[in-house]
Amino acid sequence: MAAVDCGLNTGYQGDDRCILPPPPDKGYQLHIGPTNYKTPEAAYILQPGQELTTDFPATSTNDKDVYFFYRQYRLRPTTHHAIITAGNVGGIAGLGRIATANASGEYPANGITAPEDTGVGIKLAAHSSIDVSFHTINTTADPQLRELWINFWYKDGVTQPATEWFNIGNPVFSIPPHTMTTLGPYSCNVAGTGRLLWLYGHRHANNTRFTVTRVRGTQRDVIYDADKWDDPLLLNYSTLVTNPAPNIAMGIEGGWNGILDMKPGDRVEWQCNVNNTHDTALTFTEQTYLGEMCIVDAEGVGATCN
């Protein structure tokens, strides 16, 4: 399941991100991007300084219902985030998240499934309708492409369905110009007994720190603590990954190490420190520099957080 380079040479930034799809019987590649690199369609071109969020439709190529777990993400540098939803996820009608990405990489880390996740997977119905919410920004002086490649590798023997978490807190706020403040703490209540597989804090350029805590009775455990908005930390929680203990004062991002269990009565709490250095107020918008967000993106098995 190694990623195989496409060998692109278009002259745009990120040609090295392109990867070939899996064999048709082994997986599905979601590709959002131009069909012709000499004259790319307008929807996939970003002019200097331009920022766009667009919903792109697609259809999965699997002829029968499948499960997947391992995902390879490759995104051109213009990408701020991509949110992928599909119809009939896990047998539930409607749209459900099947992947979230803000950087090239893979999940699980190093492509190796932890022993406790042997039976974990997400269902993808045959020929599912896919929607990609694609947020891109061009900070260069030249036109650039909007493009991504995501490989979903099929998996047999799935007994534990995984679901993605998406918690936005309160989207109604206004941070005055030249003000430092904290968004939150926000919280959600855990339902079901299970564990969290991965988590990252989605924020914009004015964020100076993103902290997530699991609250169990009087016990409070920091499970995620990060301060780099432009290279947001994504933590895996498994027996195969060692996460550093966070120490932001010393420049160390990190969080919970090992299996992160969740059970009814637990609460997940998060907050964002924000420094508005602009002359206008910050509100909940898609604008990377002139707006702000404080969103928990995660994936769990056996437990949800509402």
The proportion of residues in beta strands is over 45%
Indicate the percent of residues in helices: under 10%
**How confident is the prediction overall: mean pLDDT?**
94
Characterize the overall form: globular
Structural class per helix/strand content?
Answer: mainly beta
The helix tally amounts to 0
> What is the terminal separation in angstroms?
34 Å
Structure commentary:
- Helices cover about 0% and strands about 50% of the residues.
- The radius of gyration is 19 Å and the shape is globular.
- It folds into two domains: about 15-160, Jelly Rolls; about 165-305, Jelly Rolls (Sandwich), CATH 2.60.120.
- Strand 15 (about 205-215) and strand 16 form a beta hairpin.
- The protein has about 300 residues and is mainly beta.
- The two termini are about 35 Å apart.
- The strands form four sheets. Strands 1, 4, 7, 8, 11, 12, 14, 17, 19 and 21 form a ten-stranded mixed β-sheet that branches. Strands 18-16-15-20-13-22 form a six-stranded antiparallel β-sheet, with no helix packed on it.
- The chain is built from no helices and 22 strands.
Compact description:
With 306 residues, this protein is mainly beta. The protein is built from no helices and 22 strands.
